[in-house]
Amino acid sequence: MPLLLTDADVAARLDAAAAVAAMRDALVAAHEGRLIAPPRASAVLEGGRLVMTAGHLADEWYGFRSYDTFGHADGEQLVVLHDARDGRIRAIAVGEEIGSRRTGALGGAAVDLLARPDATTIGVIGSGRQAWTQLWAAAAVRPVRGVRVFSRSAARRSAFATRVSAELGIPATAVDSAAEAVRGQDVVIVATTSERPVLAAADLAPGAHVNLVGFKQRGRAEFGLDLLDRAALIATDSPAQAGAYEPPLICPTRDLRSLGAVAAGVAPGRGSVEELTVFLSVGLAGTEVFLLDRVAALQNVA
Amino acid sequence: MPLLLTDADVAARLDAAAAVAAMRDALVAAHEGRLIAPPRASAVLEGGRLVMTAGHLADEWYGFRSYDTFGHADGEQLVVLHDARDGRIRAIAVGEEIGSRRTGALGGAAVDLLARPDATTIGVIGSGRQAWTQLWAAAAVRPVRGVRVFSRSAARRSAFATRVSAELGIPATAVDSAAEAVRGQDVVIVATTSERPVLAAADLAPGAHVNLVGFKQRGRAEFGLDLLDRAALIATDSPAQAGAYEPPLICPTRDLRSLGAVAAGVAPGRGSVEELTVFLSVGLAGTEVFLLDRVAALQNVA
């Protein structure tokens, strides 16, 4: 009988430091060719698709995430982990937590690898699930002492700030504009559903690091070329996936550095404390199964 | 929390009559266009593939079966059922039983629709899991009073006969040749892994009905054209899937009758008690999810 994990189980088992460590290992494994993640496969149903993204860590496990495009508010995803030795199913996770925490933890790995070592402040634009898991992971890799958050809904950004204080124990303030949220902050997280730029590069402090989680395509991006023009380093968790975007990625993929190569120590990270660094999060495939493998080995602590 | 069913749970909940009724309904739903089953989708891993076959019954449910091609003896499949109204996962089945019982029950539906109403004897070639579920389902649609079984292994065919007597309460005999197994029998089940014909049409009684479960392609088939030439009716559970075979199906698809059309009452079945009828089982896609939907509504009875 496989282990069946709900969102509550995942939340109870997985702390941010373990999640970030897992995603650093996944980035290195992908860079070294040990983590195999083929293009997504999908089946067309009536009014939507079922999509499978698979992953395989040679000799250890294989599996997939499945999700659909029907757009149900409470629709559930699945992540399935097979043991590579005998093909048996070791664990199944139902819900959203594995998916959103792995994205957050990839962002946490980017902050760990690219932000200034002395970073202590974070500005957040967005107040949804992705914004939360990005901050949750980032706070595990730097001693954060202050957070400022902006999103369009005053009620939601206020609730987000309250949650940051309560769950992460970090002083947090909801502010009235994106500029106010990012100005002077060492790390900036942008996690919105906007198809138009929501921040100006001019508002960023020298030496800032920026995680970009939302749309990042030509004609549909939550940031503008002003940000990329100012960046000394633009990294992504999957240059291959970024190169397959349609519409295309907002910048040429030759400008991208592999975060996995940085994690593996074979490509440089930040060059100086004054540089602006940027992480384009695309969601390296296979990492949901990678994370489930780690979560399955942990015990519930709640 | 979704319902998680193991092979033991499926065996305890599902009787053959319910399984055959479900597959008759599925055949009609597919014929009427209500059961949507797109081509399989797959992701290429190292040394094998992960495959997803999806199904969607409009307004009721959608889901998929996943399996892989690594060839592990104890590898586990998954069948997943989403509620179409809210996208939540209602049930997950882990293992082989849903898959093999749905194939058996499609065969049972074929026997019910095509065999002589007064059929009482069954000849079986093969003694594996597929042979078993075919017989399990066929025995639910006719008052079977005798079974003869042949397979290459004397030990396995003997164990099969013993199991038939013990679990189905039907007198069963293991015999020394395929000809002896099928001669004079009203219903014949062929469920082997052979790539060469294992029975001769000349050995079949007038009015017999034959279920063919194994290979059925040009140059690779467990039966020969002598059988199809003698048949008055050749039915299949999915003309579309049969037409997509590679290598191609052993006979032109124009010769095939849709079993769903027969089940829906819009195409004729057997014309006389003397005719030979044949069912080419291809495994109508989407039926695993269809069956899981029914099983999920049942209680464990064991």
Structure notes:
- The structure is a homodimer of 302-residue chains.
- Chain A has 302 residues and is an alpha/beta fold.
- The first copy, chain A, folds into two domains: 3-98 and 286-296, ornithine cyclodeaminase, domain 1 (2-Layer Sandwich); 103-280, Rossmann fold, CATH 3.40.50.
- Helix content of chain A is 32%, strand content 25%.
- Chain A contains ten helices and 17 strands.
- In chain A, the strands form three sheets. Chain A has an eight-stranded parallel beta sheet.
- In chain A, helix 2 (16-31) packs across helix 3 and helix 3 (97-114) packs across helix 4.
- The longest helix of chain A has 18 residues, at 97-114.
- Chain A is globular.
- The two termini of chain A are 23 Å apart.
- Chains A and B meet through strand 3, strand 4, strand 5, strand 6 and strand 7 of A and strand 3, strand 4, strand 5, strand 6 and strand 7 of B.
Largest interface: A-B, 42 and 42 residues
The percent range for strand residues of chain A is 25-35%
| Rg of chain A, nearest Å | 18 Å
Largest sheet of chain A: 8 strands, parallel
Adjacency order of strands in the biggest sheet of chain A: 10-9-8-11-12-17-15-16
The secondary-structure class of chain A comes to: alpha/beta
Q: Could you tell me the CATH topology label of the largest domain in chain A.
A: Rossmann fold
Number of strands of chain A: 17
Task: Say what oligomer this is.
Answer: homodimer
The CATH architecture of the largest domain in chain A is: 3-Layer(aba) Sandwich
**Considering the protein shown, what is the CATH homologous superfamily of the largest domain in chain A?**
NAD(P)-binding Rossmann-like Domain
Which geometry of chain A do the CA atoms define?
globular
End-to-end Cα distance of chain A: 23 Å
H/E element sequence of chain A? EHHEEEEEEHEHEHEHEEEEHEHEHEH
Tally of domains of chain A = 2
Q: Which range best describes the helical content of chain A: under 10%, 10-25%, 25-40%, 40-55%, 55-70% or over 70%?
A: 25-40%
Low-confidence stretches of chain A: none
The CATH class of the largest domain in chain A turns out to be: Alpha Beta
Compute the average pLDDT of chain A: 96
Number of helical elements of chain A: 10
